[in-house]
Amino acid sequence: MNTRLGVTAEDQEIAQAIARFAQEQLAPMAQKVDEEEISTVCHVPGLAELGVMGMNIPEQWGGPGISPTALILSLVEIAKQCASTSSMVGAQYLATDSILLGGDDALRERYLPDAAAGLKLGAFALTEPRAGSNPADMATQAVLEGDYYRLTGTKHFISNAGEADFIVVYAKTDPKAGHRGISAFVVDKDTPGLTISSPEKLMGIRGGHAFEVALDCKVPVANRIGAEGTGFITAMKVLDNSRLDVAATSIGISEAALEAAVFWSQQRKVGGELLSQKQGIQWMLADMKLRLEASWALTLQACAKRAAGQRFSQESAMAKLYASEAVGFITDTALQIHGGYGFTREMPLERYVRDARILRIYEGSSEIQRTIIARTLLAE
């Protein structure tokens, strides 16, 4: 039971239900998902039944209307058993948050209820081969042609794209205006001229498939999210939310790694003495626990500000930065405690290490998070 400050009994109840599902349905498949690169979209029906696919969506648009804290606790429980599933769900939230935060009611009604029910899967297409950390450098364009926009360009590393029913695409409607010339569009999967590659071969989170998306297609004006030029603002708001999702995934993997290390230290004997009795191992475990709890504290602080309707860009950047770097330390240390056994594929430790590595890169690298924190600090 999670009894940390700011976590209500209702939050705990929701997270416990997700934890049971994750232990019963996700954990038994996690190793196979990793080894065979099985898409975790296979888990969507079960997740949707629990409301997970729309946990970020208010009741008005078909979601369960839960607190940001309950959402984060739930993602922690999912990632603890299968980080690939957490990644797939997070990509769904990126897409639906774009429509929720930037779109009008007509667009919300068309996509959000079905997404919350697990009937539609979304993807979020912002990153390009030459525009990762700086979206303003994107080359994808949207040119108005009567009642349609012609979208042309390429997006890269787009999670869920190959299985998605719709993709939220960010493109420049005014190439001379920098980030103020970026707009967002919903592109349905059956749109002519939309081409999606085979899944990328990834180091970790192998069940959270990522794709290259090529665009040379026409999209109705009605599928534009908000007014022209508002796409960058929408994307930044969406990423504030998503960085907490990444922090939650980091915490979930960290929880699993620490539990494995504690259990191993209490079972494994060296020279007739349990590892847990050795001060060196005890200090390693203490450092792991310290980083995990700091990750929780920063993440729940950001959740509280989000729930209060306050700006939380700095807090989400700090949570994402710290938790994603902490999970690297925690998983590596857990593997070290397991010794040679941890390096084998008979145990999940090596998977935890591989899954954790991307978390310092996507939704803004560690370097970008430091830039955000510094800029908000200097603007105070």
Layout of strands and helices, then pairs:
Layout: H1 9-36, H2 44-49, H3 68-81, H4 83-102, H5 105-116, E1 122-125, E2 141-145, E3 148-159, E4 166-172, E5 182-188, E6 194-196, E7 210-220, E8 224-225, H6 231-267, E9 269-270, E10 273-274, H7 279-307, H8 313-338, H9 349-357, H10 366-378
Parallel strand pairs: 1-4
Antiparallel strand pairs: 2-3, 3-7, 4-5, 5-8, 6-7, 9-10
Helix pairs in contact: 1-3, 3-4, 3-6, 4-5, 4-6, 6-7, 6-8, 6-9, 7-8, 8-9, 8-10
Q: Termini distance?
A: 37 Å
Q: How would you state the average pLDDT, rounded?
A: 97
- Cross-sheet strand order for the largest sheet: 1-4-5-8
CATH superfamily of the largest domain: Butyryl-CoA Dehydrogenase, subunit A, domain 3
Low-confidence stretches: none
CATH topology of the largest domain: Butyryl-CoA Dehydrogenase, subunit A, domain 3
Give Rg in angstroms: 21 Å
